Amino acid sequence: MEIIAWFIAALVLAGLELAVGEFTLLMLGGGALAASGVALTAAPLWGQVAAFALVSLGLLFFVKPILRRKMQVPLALDTSSEALVGHAAEVLETVHQGSGGQIRLDGSIWSAVTVDPHASYSEGEHVTVVRIDGPTAIVWKEN
């Protein structure tokens, strides 16, 4: 009978979590499910309660923070030019430090210069955007 009571408690707590949405009741439901499993072994009530408490605390302190971090979404889509940093680009016109050149970045053509003053990238090479400085992309290529 205790098995069914713990299992029902787990279902009720998981169902209530749908209304609250902060993972606390879900973690307690996990503890109740663990206590139901312990009750299957014919453990005494104090063992079931201890399993419920230990598993619930473990879930609350270790799993809940990880779930909250995973579920946080950015507030807005970053559409600024800084969002292009780290993207790959194709060189359309030879890129030098001094004179610069052109790259195709995210479907648009950008002016570009190299990070390294001695580097030069030819047409067709693929580079990575390190920084955006106004209308110019600062690029780098791993060798």
TrEMBL record:
<keyword id="KW-0812">Transmembrane</keyword>
<feature type="domain" description="NfeD-like C-terminal">
    <location>
        <begin position="82"/>
        <end position="141"/>
    </location>
</feature>
<dbReference type="GO" id="GO:0005886">
    <property type="term" value="C:plasma membrane"/>
</dbReference>
<keyword id="KW-0472">Membrane</keyword>
<dbReference type="InterPro" id="IPR002810">
    <property type="entry name" value="NfeD-like_C"/>
</dbReference>
<dbReference type="InterPro" id="IPR052165">
    <property type="entry name" value="Membrane_assoc_protease"/>
</dbReference>
<keyword id="KW-1133">Transmembrane helix</keyword>
<dbReference type="Pfam" id="PF01957">
    <property type="entry name" value="NfeD"/>
</dbReference>
<dbReference type="InterPro" id="IPR012340">
    <property type="entry name" value="NA-bd_OB-fold"/>
</dbReference>
<protein>
    <recommendedName>
        <fullName>NfeD-like C-terminal domain-containing protein</fullName>
    </recommendedName>
</protein>
<feature type="transmembrane region" description="Helical">
    <location>
        <begin position="44"/>
        <end position="63"/>
    </location>
</feature>
